[in-house]
Amino acid sequence: MKEVSKERFVSDISMHDNNVMVRKPFRISTEDMRRFVRLEVATPVTMRVIKDSLGNFEPDGGSLTFEGNILNVSPGGVLVELDHPLAENDIVLIDFRLQDVESIQNVLGIIQRVERDDDTYMDGIEFVTRKDLVDRLSQAELDLITPDAAHFQEKILQVLERYLYCAEPDHKE
């Protein structure tokens, strides 16, 4: 059985210089041809579908709960490996821990890409805020979603900022 890398970009974050570093326990990855960054993680994830592409709405994710593994995360999204396919444009709530260091709960996301990979599915999920959902959900539906999900983008950026930093450039005289 050949080993296949399942690392893929979900959302690219531009690096303006070569001084971006990451603190332990995380590892940073860049792609030689592009200068983008993501954190490689291998952590379990629980996802609850709150509105599927067919229009079914369950604000707490009720019966549509899936477990899988996050393969990488960036400020814009995650790549998740699942045994069951979800559909593009499904709206999900995501719960996970980053390397057993940070617990992230009730994260709003939209499935942007689904690819089959042998017996699993690779789902690229974009992180979104409530404002990003005003064209996809009615006001009544938005009101039923847990208030904790409203401020995800700010929360994940705060978490990542604790680990990503710019190193001082070497001064050669």
Give the secondary structure arrangement, pairings included.
Layout: E1 20-22, E2 27-30, E3 37-51, E4 65-74, E5 77-82, E6 91-98, E7 102-117, E8 120-127, H1 139-144, H2 152-161, E9 164-166
Antiparallel strand pairs: 1-9, 2-3, 3-4, 3-6, 4-5, 5-8, 6-7, 7-8
Structural class: mainly beta
Secondary structure: helix percent? under 10%
Query: Per CATH, what is the topology?
Result: Thrombin, subunit H
H/E element order = EEEEEEEEHHE
CATH architecture: Beta Barrel
Name of the CATH superfamily: predicted glycosyltransferase like domains
Distance between the termini: 53 Å
The strand order across the widest sheet is: 3-4-5-8-7-6
Quantity of strands, as a count: 9
- How would a textbook summarize the main sheet? 6 strands, antiparallel, barrel
Short description:
With 173 residues, the chain is mainly beta.
Task: List descriptors.
173 residues, mainly beta, Thrombin, subunit H, 6-stranded antiparallel beta barrel, two-stranded antiparallel ribbon, globular, disordered N terminus
Descriptive notes:
The chain is mostly beta strands and 173 residues long. The protein has a single domain, classed as Beta Barrel (Thrombin, subunit H). Helices cover 9% and strands 42% of the residues. It has a six-stranded antiparallel barrel. Strands 1-9 form a two-stranded antiparallel sheet. Strand 7 and strand 8 form a beta hairpin. The N and C termini lie far apart (53 Å).
